[in-house]
Amino acid sequence: MNKVNLTIDGRQVTVSADSTVLEAARKLKIKIPTLCYLKDINAIGACRMCLVEVKGARSLQASCVLPVEEGMEIKTNSPLVRTTRRTVLELILSNHNRECTLCVRNSHCELQTLAMEIGVREISFPGELPERPVDQQSPALLRDGSKCILCRRCVALCHQVQSVGVIQATERGFQTTIEPVFGKSLNEVACIFCGQCIHACPVAALQEKDERDKVWKALADPDLHVLVQTAPAVRVA
Ligand code: FES
């Protein structure tokens, strides 16, 4: 594999030519915040938390989807990057149910952790919150759309890893939501209750429930049983 040399925050690094800038930075143990990125599973450049400055580029670039190039010069912590990163985080938080102290993921939430690390204490963009109701119909998990940050990590897990594909992004812009397919509730689609989407969720948009009797009853469905047998179990770090 060809190698590429680049400079990140003044430090030289050599990586394989198919790497991204985020991977190169991680090789140097330089931390770039991410939310939507899941290694090998979800690299879609959606959240923009991983923006970096590239010498010669006209705008900041999402490092998780930015291929390395020979001689690149990257800044991950310049004043422009820090200011923009903070604005991006505030925008994400402005669309998020911020009742953190009442949340099951309080103190285990990637969004909350980032807000604390970056020092966001208030939101400059108060406004309307999208209406995304709670779906409690599934016996195994609860969906709280008011907490969803639209990172699509759950969608990638469900489709690409588990090969189940019962959730998807629908609508556009402010109306965008992550929903079960065909406009159904989770108990009406072929969810196999693997729970991988919960592990993938950086916030508390997906939460565990424990109604075992109902889960076993649903798993007795012969069509669903085939899916359970074929879906590989994975652990998301
Ligand atoms: Fe790169 Fe979300 S982590 S855009």
From TrEMBL:
Keyword Repeat recorded: yes
Principal place of residence: membrane
Residue stretches making up the 4Fe-4S ferredoxin-type domain: 139-169, 182-211
Entry GO CC: membrane
Keywords: 2Fe-2S, 4Fe-4S, Iron, Iron-sulfur, Membrane, Metal-binding, NAD, Repeat, Translocase
Membrane-spanning intervals of the chain: none
Start and end residues of each 4Fe-4S His(Cys)3-ligated-type domain: 80-119
GO function terms (MF aspect): 2 iron, 2 sulfur cluster binding; 4 iron, 4 sulfur cluster binding; ferredoxin hydrogenase activity; iron ion binding; NADH dehydrogenase (ubiquinone) activity
Cellular compartments annotated: Membrane
Any GO BP annotation: ATP synthesis coupled electron transport
UniProt similarity note: Belongs to the complex I 75 kDa subunit family.
Entry protein name: 2Fe-2S iron-sulfur cluster binding domain-containing protein
Species of origin: Heliorestis acidaminivorans
Residues of the full protein shown: 1 to 237 of 583
